Amino acid sequence: MALFLGFESCETDEENGDNLTIYVRYCRETFKDDFQRFITQIRYLFFDEDGILQHVVLLQRGIDSDLQHLSPMLPYGRYTLIAIGNREEHSDCEYKVGFTRMEEVTLATHLRQAGDLQGDCDPMYWGILPFEYAANKPNDYICDMSNIHCRLRVTVRWANHLPGYR
Fold it and tell me: pLDDT per residue over 28-87, tens digit each?
């Protein structure tokens, strides 16, 4: 008696390299990733090659298990990812899928009362990543974040008189 066993293999997106994966990091002055230390919530905006918002992902520490690894379900094409960290706490901005254009993306920070002190001088973070999601190729990308520097309010007062011009 003969026993024949046959095994079939099936192709998966992972074998083809079609899976889109994006790792987001924030490295300040060293190569150490400080994302977990400074970024508590993040909004990912995906724009198509025409600059129209196609997909939005909002992740928050304590609610979502991983804020740094993305595998968005997008059709093949060219995209630009804009990542904005801690936006919800410090900014008032509205974005609409299918309508918002990339050049319309702005951040407007909350105005604070006179005399208030800002606890963190760089509360918001941003990153931008142009990428192409294509069939039959590796689609693994890294998006580096940077901090958005604080506003300075400066008042100059001369002690006794205006300085002399030279």
Answer: 777 888 888 889 999 999 999 999 999 999 999 999 999 999 999 999 999 999 999 987
Quick: pLDDT tens for 19-38. Answer: 999 999 998 777 888 888 88
CB burial readout 129-145, b (16+ within 10 A) else e: bebebeeeeebebebeb
Rg of the chain's alpha carbons, rounded to an integer? 23
- Report yes or no: 43 and 88 within 8 Å, Cβ to Cβ: yes
Burial environment of residue 81 by CB neighbours within 10 A (0 to 12, 13 to 18, 19 or more): buried
Domain 15-107+122-148, CATH class in plain words: mainly beta
Helix/strand number for the chain, H first, E second: 3, 8
Q: How many CA atoms lie within 13 A of 138 on its CB side?
A: 4
Per-domain residue ranges for the chain? 15-107+122-148
